[in-house]
UniProtKB/TrEMBL annotation:
<dbReference type="InterPro" id="IPR018376">
    <property type="entry name" value="Enoyl-CoA_hyd/isom_CS"/>
</dbReference>
<protein>
    <submittedName>
        <fullName>Crotonase/enoyl-CoA hydratase family protein</fullName>
    </submittedName>
</protein>
<comment type="similarity">
    <text>Belongs to the enoyl-CoA hydratase/isomerase family.</text>
</comment>
<comment type="function">
    <text>Could possibly oxidize fatty acids using specific components.</text>
</comment>
<dbReference type="GO" id="GO:0004300">
    <property type="term" value="F:enoyl-CoA hydratase activity"/>
</dbReference>
<keyword id="KW-0276">Fatty acid metabolism</keyword>
<dbReference type="InterPro" id="IPR014748">
    <property type="entry name" value="Enoyl-CoA_hydra_C"/>
</dbReference>
<dbReference type="InterPro" id="IPR001753">
    <property type="entry name" value="Enoyl-CoA_hydra/iso"/>
</dbReference>
<keyword id="KW-0443">Lipid metabolism</keyword>
<dbReference type="InterPro" id="IPR029045">
    <property type="entry name" value="ClpP/crotonase-like_dom_sf"/>
</dbReference>
<keyword id="KW-0456">Lyase</keyword>
<dbReference type="Pfam" id="PF00378">
    <property type="entry name" value="ECH_1"/>
</dbReference>
<dbReference type="GO" id="GO:0006635">
    <property type="term" value="P:fatty acid beta-oxidation"/>
</dbReference>
Amino acid sequence: MSDNNEALLVERKGHVETWTINLPEIRNPISAPEVVEAIVENVDRVNLDHDVRAVVLTGAGSAFSAGGNVKDMVDRAGMFGGSPYELRDGYRNGIQRIPLALYHCQVPVIAAVNGPAVGAGCDLTMMCDMRIASTRAWFAESFVNLGIIPGDGGAWLLTKTIGPARAAEMALTGDRVDAATALDWGMVNSVVEPDALLDAAHALAERVAKNPPHSVRMAKKLLRESQHQSLSSLLELSAAMQALAHHTEDHREALAAFNEKRPGEYTGK
């Protein structure tokens, strides 16, 4: 599969899709309406397509994403223009749709961070389930340096990922965090050389995609719910999902494959 539009390139190989933010000349900002629409529409699509089992998200060119378009901020254009009330609605009806969409994406999303991930670009990596960084990557929660705050959920996302103390350090200083430090802090799963980045991200995606897709989607849902539910509530949800899992054809195939010491062949049924 290959669906190439101006904002987001979508390619499918087997059960894995690669989404590439495709605005390299302006370092892949995600504040533009076309980027928001492309990400939201593709999340909605893969949620309904059980043949898609993992997604790799990356950026074209040298940057992963510069976050918001600073030129538009200077010009007070697009989502950065208008009265305070219009600005609020611009965020709510614009860039804030991305964290909500990715949070509810049923398919695991792996960020392949090829270069700088700045501001909302840093937060975009935190919206993904797993992250692999190039040695050229760096991360900055740099909103404070521009006299603004994380308007896309960064305070929540960073705290959930690296804890309150390190999230505070990033958000209140705006300082850069290099790939090695990001690995040490648990921001990323691994760091690889630039030429190996996409191969490493796809290898991780394939490790996910080889499993029964219903089980993967339900496990991801439980991981999301665990962030705000009590243990007793999560156990109730787990029991209900487990009952569904036990009645899938893929569960029976997984048991047969285990007993016969062979890879499973799963259909999503």
